[in-house]
Specification:
19% strand; alpha+beta; 10 strands; 149 residues
Length: 149
C-alpha cells in the first residue's frame, strides 16, 4: 500500500518532468519499485533532490521513518568526461551515502562501480562457501544436505 501511495505521489506531471527520458520510447521514468525497494531516477541531481524532498514529505505525513543507512545515491555525467559522482543528496537531514564509497545491493544483487568479472566471481564463491558452511553446521543426514546443496 505504501508503495502505491508513493508511486501516486511521484507520478504527477511535476515529478515526471524531473524524470529521465528513455531514448527508445520517449517515456519519462522517475521511479522504479519492487516491493519496498524504491529507486528515484532523474535527469539531474537537483531534480532528484526535489523528488527526495517529496518522498520525505510523504514519510513525514505517513509517520514512516526513512532508513537512510539503507539508502544509496549514484549520479552519472558525460561531460567533460564520463564519470560517476556523488550527487550529495539528502533525506531527513542526512546525507545519502554514495554507492561508490560503500557499495550496495539492489534486489539482493551487488551494486558496485568497480564490478570486474573477477570481483563478481569472488563474491559468488564467497557467498556459496558461506551457505555450504551453514548447511554443514546443521545436523542433517548427508542425503538431505546434498539436496540442500
Amino acid at each position: 500500500m505504501v508503495t502505491c501511495l508513493l508511486n501516486s505521489a511521484l507520478s504527477s506531471e511535476q515529478h515526471l518532468s524531473r524524470g529521465y527520458k528513455l531514448i527508445s520510447t520517449g517515456d519519462k521514468v522517475n521511479q522504479l519499485w519492487f516491493a519496498d525497494d524504491g529507486t528515484l531516477v532523474s535527469n539531474s541531481a537537483k531534480n532528484c533532490q526535489h523528488q527526495g524532498d517529496a518522498v520525505e514529505r510523504f514519510l513525514n505525513w505517513s509517520g514512516i521513518e526513512a532508513k537512510v543507512v539503507k539508502c544509496r545515491s549514484l549520479a552519472f555525467r558525460s561531460r567533460p568526461k564520463s564519470e560517476f559522482y556523488d550527487p550529495m543528496l539528502r533525506i531527513c537531514g542526512q546525507h545519502i551515502p554514495f554507492v561508490g564509497e560503500t557499495g550496495a545491493t539492489f534486489l539482493g544483487l551487488p551494486l558496485d562501480l568497480s564490478l570486474s568479472p573477477d570481483k563478481i566471481q569472488h563474491m559468488i564463491t564467497t557467498k556459496l562457501e558461506d551457505l555450504c558452511q551453514k548447511v554443514d553446521e546443521v545436523s542433517l543426514p548427508a542425503t538431505l544436505k546434498l539436496k540442500l546443496y
